[in-house]
Amino acid sequence: MTMVYTLRQMDQSTxxxxxxxxxxxxxxxxxxxxxxxxPISHEEFHFALRILIGExxxxxxxxxxxxxxxxxxxxxxxxxxxxxRFPESDENKEKYFPLYLPKEAAFTSLMLRHMHITHHxxxxxxxxxxxxxxxxxxxxxxxxxxxxxxxxxxxxIECARFHAKPxxxxxxxALMPERxxxxxxxxxxxxxxxxxxxxxxxxSTELRKVYGVxxxxxxxxxxxxxxxTDATTAKFLLAFKRFVSRRGTPRLILSDNAKQFKLSxxxxxxxxxxxxxxxxxxxxLT
Length: 286
Ligand SMILES: [Zn+2]
Known about the structure:
By secondary structure, this protein is α/β, with parallel strands linked by helices. It has 2 domains: about 1-165, no CATH class; about 175-255, Nucleotidyltransferase, domain 5 (2-Layer Sandwich). About 45% of the residues lie in helices and about 15% in strands. The protein has 13 helices and 8 strands. The protein has helices spanning about 1-10, 10-20, 30, 40-60, 65-70, 95, 105-120, 125-130, 140-150, 155-160, 235-245, 260-275, 280-285; strands spanning about 70-75, 80, 100, 135, 190-200, 205-215, 225-230, 250-255. A 4-stranded mixed sheet has the order 7-6-5-8, with helices on one face. It has a two-stranded antiparallel sheet with strand order 1-2. Helix 8 packs across helix 9 (about 140-150) and helix 11 packs across helix 12. About 15% of the residues are buried. The mean pLDDT is about 85. The site of zinc ion (ZN) has 5 residues, from helix 10.
């Protein structure tokens, strides 16, 4: 359609240039295209199509092998057609003497995409049948697969979405031994913060922020919740102390790399080091 509007608006000098160095179709441009806006006629559309096919053939001329194999010949418009075994007539010319369209031409890719979309996103076999009603391109199936299904620049996004396979789920690794321990609950725990939440405090209309600390038992999946007024290390240690008072000291704690947990780990290690190095405690124990 763009080609039709371009040809309609072409000025005299451009048309003369085309007439001098283009196909036999060029002199006919005057009779087919009259400057104006109106709807595109059937003749205009098919004439523009023939010009584009002629340009593609000129840009990518067929090799001698292809000429011989497809028995290419020039028709009355100067376009290359494949010769068939039927006698040529106006009725069967398009069907039995298809126009040759080189596989390298950008126009071939556009034609395939256009036909694929106008024929309800048909598969390669149907598209080949539709395409070969009027056109012929060597190695068409491979070309269709490349243009419609593979090439990221030209492939049909709708078809890619429709035929997309679900991604494979990752294989789950074996459970760690702590997850299978049958000892006391909360011997092996995971910890994390969640929140913040805004809550009312007694005697005040203001809302204040609170966070939650969740302790989960890795074995039986039981949970223990503590509320803290901020997400600092000091408040976490207090929450952890309350947890230990209620559930006992865990043997293993898993957490993410949040700063509060890392600092708490260092602090607890430091305290236990100080505890066992304390002179009075050492004397008492000995
Ligand atoms: Zn499609």
